[in-house]
């Protein structure tokens, strides 16, 4: 990398995707639209900047990975920032994104460009590109293209690998039942009512034991090297009680900062002064929600907290479970209940067919269904390390969880106590008005967490001789001058 190229790289690296007052950051939107963690999206932004540098400096056409291409797609949506700021002021020329023509020749061309892009990455940055953002060519033009946009509020999204694992266990269980049924005397489906009900109850007890063990064992993970992580008040609040506690903590801190005043008579908060420039995104969300709603309870329900950054930070620190681990725990925990329910329903059909009473078994089956639904509804959040760390914090600051605790009258002074123990620490004394409005807020209220097309190839080129850069992508295009 020569001096001019280094200046170009430094200039691109200094580019900011967001304006100072942006509520929904570019990285947060990228993560939300692609189902990524915020940390992964932030890494993708850095790799996108490297790709743009290669488009200007490599001297040959370049093609991004599918992941980097998603960053490019979103960047093009911000048309003014892309065409009027990023391209002229940071790249020095337009960088176009045009559609592929399709067909085997185009596929071969983009495959070759992608391979050359990876080679230039090695050459300029003296390191291999990260495989999770720059996969091998075979994967980039194979599995990575088989994706679609899905409305997750209308559809369940379950990884195939997890379904396959659960299906294998379920199939094994059914095979065992079938093998037992090879002998009429041993087949439980031919047992009399009392004997079958006894077996069903025993299997139900075993299923409960399995559920408890799965939920306990799968929460165990590697203990991080830093066994005493330094957390913000909001991270502690999320660890203790999720977004609801974050909302209450932010409200209390904004009150002590002089931004929100208490209207205890009407159970609401009013504006005293604007937010400071360094206010966090979640403080802005809480502040705006209080100013637009009639009371604190409604403000809590309507508030859209951008908690992705908090959640991803706690996942990285090993304090809460990743979404994949949460889904695995939930599905493995209900697996024996699903098999037991199928077992009971089969016996019910046999009993009805033979004219036998099945009322008690129907009751047992309904109970099994209820337990199954409860297991699905109870979503694990904290890891075992997270629970242990939280417990140690509570023991360390147990004096706050007592009548009329002595708290400092500052945002920093009440932030951690409220995060750990809730609004109960604000009872009495100088914080009584604040506490009287926050305490009625339900810990389980519905705080909202503001938490695609396929293509055959993408490319860009420097155009040679200082001309426009150009790019191609199936189904997508952009144009400059």
Automatic annotation (TrEMBL):
The chain crosses the membrane at residues 331-352, 358-379. Residues 446-461 have a biased composition (Low complexity). Residues 462-481 have a biased composition (Gly residues). InterPro entries: Ser/Gly_Cys_C_dom. Keywords: Membrane, Transmembrane, Transmembrane helix. Residues 446-481 are annotated as: Disordered. This is TIGR04222 domain-containing membrane protein. It comes from Telmatocola sphagniphila.
